[in-house]
Amino acid sequence: MTPRKSAKTTAAPVEREHGLHLLRSMVRIRRFEDKCAELYTATKIRGFLHLYDGEEAVAVGVLEALTADDAVVATYREHGHALVRGVAAGAILAEMYGRQEGCSRGRGGSMHLFDARTRFYGGNAIVGGGLPLAVGLALADTMQQKRRVTCCFFGDGAVAEGEFHESLNLAALWRLPVLFVCENNLYAMGTALRYAQAATDLAARAASYGMAAAAVDGMDVLAVEAAAHQAAAAIRAGEGPQFLECRTYRFRAHSMYDAELYRTRAEVEQWKQRCPIASFTERLRGAGLVSDGDLEAIEAEVAREINEAVAFAEAGSLEPVEDLTRFVYSERRLP
Amino acid sequence: MTPRKSAKTTAAPVEREHGLHLLRSMVRIRRFEDKCAELYTATKIRGFLHLYDGEEAVAVGVLEALTADDAVVATYREHGHALVRGVAAGAILAEMYGRQEGCSRGRGGSMHLFDARTRFYGGNAIVGGGLPLAVGLALADTMQQKRRVTCCFFGDGAVAEGEFHESLNLAALWRLPVLFVCENNLYAMGTALRYAQAATDLAARAASYGMAAAAVDGMDVLAVEAAAHQAAAAIRAGEGPQFLECRTYRFRAHSMYDAELYRTRAEVEQWKQRCPIASFTERLRGAGLVSDGDLEAIEAEVAREINEAVAFAEAGSLEPVEDLTRFVYSERRLP
Amino acid sequence: MTTTAGTMRKLTYREAVREAIREAMHKDERVFLMGEDVGRYGGCFAVSKGLLEEFGPERIRDTPLAESGFTGAGIGAALGGMRPIVEIMTGNFSLLAADQIINTAAVLLHMSGGQFNVPVVIRLATGGGRQVAAQHSRSLEGWFAHIPGIKVLAPATVNDARGMLWTALEDPDPVLIFENSNLYNMEGPLAVEAGAVDIDRARVRRDGRDITIISYGASLFKALEAAEILAKDGIEVEVVDLRTLRPLDEATFLASVARTHRALVVDEGWRSGSLAAEISARIMEGAFYDLDAPVARLCTAEVPLPYAKHLEEAALPQVAGIVALVKKMVGGHG
Amino acid sequence: MTTTAGTMRKLTYREAVREAIREAMHKDERVFLMGEDVGRYGGCFAVSKGLLEEFGPERIRDTPLAESGFTGAGIGAALGGMRPIVEIMTGNFSLLAADQIINTAAVLLHMSGGQFNVPVVIRLATGGGRQVAAQHSRSLEGWFAHIPGIKVLAPATVNDARGMLWTALEDPDPVLIFENSNLYNMEGPLAVEAGAVDIDRARVRRDGRDITIISYGASLFKALEAAEILAKDGIEVEVVDLRTLRPLDEATFLASVARTHRALVVDEGWRSGSLAAEISARIMEGAFYDLDAPVARLCTAEVPLPYAKHLEEAALPQVAGIVALVKKMVGGHG
Ligand SMILES: Cc1ncc(C[n+]2csc(CCOP(=O)(O)OP(=O)(O)O)c2C)c(N)n1
Ligand SMILES: Cc1ncc(C[n+]2csc(CCOP(=O)(O)OP(=O)(O)O)c2C)c(N)n1
Ligand SMILES: [Mg+2]
Ligand SMILES: [Mg+2]
């Protein structure tokens, strides 16, 4: 099986409402991440913090293809995914504040956002660790004859892990409804893909397991969305797992500790020229679909959402210390 | 990179001496394994015992391509490899008797044959566990500018393990001198390859890592030998790791506990028609290269070797119980 | 399986586990068994023999050799509403799945602030004594018992082999069940009406007044055998079967030690960092002033298990060693 | 790094480890460093920063994310005549390499009847307290100390961070070095002439007569701080730094307990099955009749470490908790 090569960039115009929706989603992520960086510097957020700037088109485009019934498994760089999936910004921020109003009660922090309502299964900080989990969720769906998709995000770095291999084989062997989304931002911390993989065409590698695989421009939200829709449709049609490599770039450091010794400023600047938000804005503008007023409205709306989220987090409360050992084991029996 | 497909069966005649040598090697393995089975029934050998009947052409053909300086990493089904590599039959059998004259002092048993003199690094009973080790041995050679080959044997079952994936990628990425030999006997215990792998062309899978890979008829000792020579030559020429899939079959049960519920007698019988020893004998005979006298001489020689091995094992002694906790840590400092 | 008088019947530990699986699969369609060679091969210890024919390959699911992958898939399937029984052939291979067990199963409930519990059951064969050498002979149950978020069971009797599995399946959290492979052929009585059993409490398997032996799994029977022998010398040994290694039911063994004033822990783990150390420490903390002598441990010698029979036997706790140690302990400060 | 008077200079724990690596690489061309982001990134805790420039990418070798693969490759390279230092970013990720460490490195010498030793050094960051939550905060050093065939070191001081690595590299067997990540920024004195140190013995870091606190790694400094505070109340605490967790030097702490008659073990592992349990059990066995009171343990609460600062602090052993516990122990039965 050869990979479906770069699903071609849709030149066709997008509906205005949908265009605004996609743009708004990406802006929400960007502004949210900016706020997190600021709050980290202000020591309101602690621990590890991994931001998603530059990669917004991936989460936004892919999650468009899911329904409320589907499941999402993400990594430690998952604020954007949680936001777009429908977890309240306030609950996410409160989590990073360590408040019990946080989406994981303050026990998880930035890397471990969870939300049962939206079937958001974390927030996994073990590289590659989410993949077997996604396989299992999809297995459960198959065995229960539920036609749902489990969407699993992971980085280029995860591809080297044994768990990647075992998971892709299992999913392909059992034809499970998993949408594997590789966020290939060219680096795993400071290790460039060429130092990590003998064969750097990740979609081709995935195809070797006998599953349909495509690579797409991860800086183009419409291209990502189209490819994700196609893949999700194939899964729902019973064609088994699908693999989507989204070629993207992270604009910020790996985490707040990273001195970025491994790449040049020039390289980062070059990629910033391809900012998914700026380029999509231009495209919408070029097609006469958005006005400056629209953009201002989006920014204002997002700013309000984020301000409210900050207020929510600030107003949050701490879980009583007496409850320390809760949630190690369940407090009730199961049905 | 696409796999070099089935290196074609050599129809060219083999030199008489070499033909006899290959035949003798295969017969040594077959008779040795038969003796082990007998001794197991007689409860002289205990624990797990995995025999190699039917697969002799693989070990014999591949090991022809190695020099004394090269290294071998094998599995728990490794009597044949050890024998052909030059570990004394007596030392192997004494090992299974649990005698201190055994090649691992009786501490390893059938699954853990080791021999420093022939650079035989085990005898690993964790499926896939030997692959990272082989990568490391080859890395050491590369860093020390030693032009040696590390030859790593493993089964079709190991291909599903994460360690397979991590090892192949590392070897390809660092262009290490590893000869990966997959003994594809179609089953991992009772699990047929098609129930274990979504994509059952293992050489093709290996090629996806960016290394040269070939599949060869593992029942044809000359074909295996030719392919191994070619692969070893490529490694010595600095072309990086090579992968050889040897398509073979095991005539006996997986181990002495196996009720063989998962395959039919008919299937086994069919494969026995392709016995590597019988077919090679016929070929030599057809080319007028061996006589009945030669065959009798080989059998007599092998019988003598095995009888002596049994006598050696029987005469072996037990390590004193007081030494129980030796070899947990080294007894001397290093140079 | 042979039926004996009244409402008891005799069956092997292996049959008990198989019955427990069968029964669970009949009762609850969410239950399925997954692991290497559980189906077509009939199970590496023949535990699941016949189940493929009864339930089909969807629910008796052979997996590739991919311990992390299929264990993680079991965890995910549990999250997704199923009740998987994952079989890892032996505890030794669980080292390949340690990431999924410890980094995922054990922490999801906590990291999600209580939202996602993981009702997976993982069965593993354990123990030495079969001459299968270092890589196949470890007893890692005590080691896994260090990890918060999982429960660790070690059924010793046929009744527990049958009953604990069902209770484990009803547990909302990940449960590891270590089955000592030396027990599979052991026959024992089971009530025809036998049902689920608790997994919260240790049990006194024999009453005695002179010393308490605390053990579990296959070692339990060595302790009981030693107690028989010692009884002939007038030494009355109380034997406690831990049953559940995490969380530990310390109340039961502390109460026993308070009665006998002496304790010996017999544990197939290596001595340093063994579960036996934890038991000793708990007695130190909870029954120090009851003790007439220091708590002793009889564990596996600190060596990877050798293949040679005489060395392996010397490495593992044995009845004779228990007898000798108890005599010394009771005689020394009687 | 700043030079102070005489033959002492001050440097951080991080610098000490870096110097130890540099020195080893200069002394012995068989030594190399391998792990995720040790090179181009500069090391995830900046330990190896600058070494790539000095030694090049062959010897400061960035690896893909493949813990089992590259740890196994380190083991193989050691077999092949090299002296690899494998860096696993944190102990948590060693769960992905547990198979290679335990099923291979720990048993090869034994299974081969003494033929093949494995001189690999594996460095791992460990410890909680940095609000990085459950999957990044474990202290697994005590847990690994259960495994025969490996040695486990836990350097606490700058001097040990420098000296133990070199000794570990000279050791013929696999050595795991757990570096508590909270220590990397700690400054401490080092003799200009400082060389290798032993890895066989525990050390008394403070003399005292009333009670012995046994600890290691970052907790050692909490113990020492508590001892300072307690001294003001006239309680003289002896503090023992274990340094090497496997094999344990019990002679040193037993001798101390024989003098003080009381002991507290402070250990960042979870309590059940902790190294602290082993220490308690050893004291039970080796100094029972010296004890005036039961040995106590202060460990991490049995919960995956929470992100929220106040909960994480409550979960970990702290100075105030040590002080309170010692006061109770010494006061209670003085
Ligand atoms: C198993 C494991 N090894 C190492 C790490 C440390 N680590 C965290 S993120 C990361 C890089 C991952 O890169 P990639 O998968 O490409 O994701 P990205 O951060 O680029 O989104 C590493 C090495 C980890 N969290 N888990
Ligand atoms: C990691 C691991 N999982 C499971 C086993 C149990 N086991 C031993 S051999 C074997 C089958 C291996 O099949 P394959 O790799 O094809 O080798 P073959 O026996 O056919 O030569 C299994 C499952 C093991 N030894 N190691
Ligand atoms: Mg990346
Ligand atoms: Mg096979």
From TrEMBL, chains A, B:
<keyword id="KW-0670">Pyruvate</keyword>
<protein>
    <recommendedName>
        <fullName>Pyruvate dehydrogenase E1 component subunit alpha</fullName>
        <ecNumber>1.2.4.1</ecNumber>
    </recommendedName>
</protein>
<dbReference type="Pfam" id="PF00676">
    <property type="entry name" value="E1_dh"/>
</dbReference>
<keyword id="KW-0560">Oxidoreductase</keyword>
<comment type="function">
    <text>The pyruvate dehydrogenase complex catalyzes the overall conversion of pyruvate to acetyl-CoA and CO(2).</text>
</comment>
<keyword id="KW-0786">Thiamine pyrophosphate</keyword>
<dbReference type="InterPro" id="IPR050642">
    <property type="entry name" value="PDH_E1_Alpha_Subunit"/>
</dbReference>
<feature type="domain" description="Dehydrogenase E1 component">
    <location>
        <begin position="25"/>
        <end position="316"/>
    </location>
</feature>
<dbReference type="InterPro" id="IPR029061">
    <property type="entry name" value="THDP-binding"/>
</dbReference>
<dbReference type="InterPro" id="IPR017597">
    <property type="entry name" value="Pyrv_DH_E1_asu_subgrp-y"/>
</dbReference>
<dbReference type="GO" id="GO:0004739">
    <property type="term" value="F:pyruvate dehydrogenase (acetyl-transferring) activity"/>
</dbReference>
<dbReference type="GO" id="GO:0006086">
    <property type="term" value="P:pyruvate decarboxylation to acetyl-CoA"/>
</dbReference>
<comment type="subunit">
    <text>Heterodimer of an alpha and a beta chain.</text>
</comment>
<dbReference type="InterPro" id="IPR001017">
    <property type="entry name" value="DH_E1"/>
</dbReference>
Automatic annotation (TrEMBL), chains C, D:
<keyword id="KW-0670">Pyruvate</keyword>
<protein>
    <submittedName>
        <fullName>Pyruvate/2-oxoglutarate/acetoin dehydrogenase E1 component</fullName>
    </submittedName>
</protein>
<dbReference type="Pfam" id="PF02780">
    <property type="entry name" value="Transketolase_C"/>
</dbReference>
<dbReference type="InterPro" id="IPR033248">
    <property type="entry name" value="Transketolase_C"/>
</dbReference>
<dbReference type="InterPro" id="IPR005475">
    <property type="entry name" value="Transketolase-like_Pyr-bd"/>
</dbReference>
<dbReference type="InterPro" id="IPR009014">
    <property type="entry name" value="Transketo_C/PFOR_II"/>
</dbReference>
<feature type="domain" description="Transketolase-like pyrimidine-binding">
    <location>
        <begin position="11"/>
        <end position="186"/>
    </location>
</feature>
<dbReference type="Pfam" id="PF02779">
    <property type="entry name" value="Transket_pyr"/>
</dbReference>
<dbReference type="InterPro" id="IPR029061">
    <property type="entry name" value="THDP-binding"/>
</dbReference>
<dbReference type="GO" id="GO:0016491">
    <property type="term" value="F:oxidoreductase activity"/>
</dbReference>
<keyword id="KW-0560">Oxidoreductase</keyword>
<keyword id="KW-0786">Thiamine pyrophosphate</keyword>
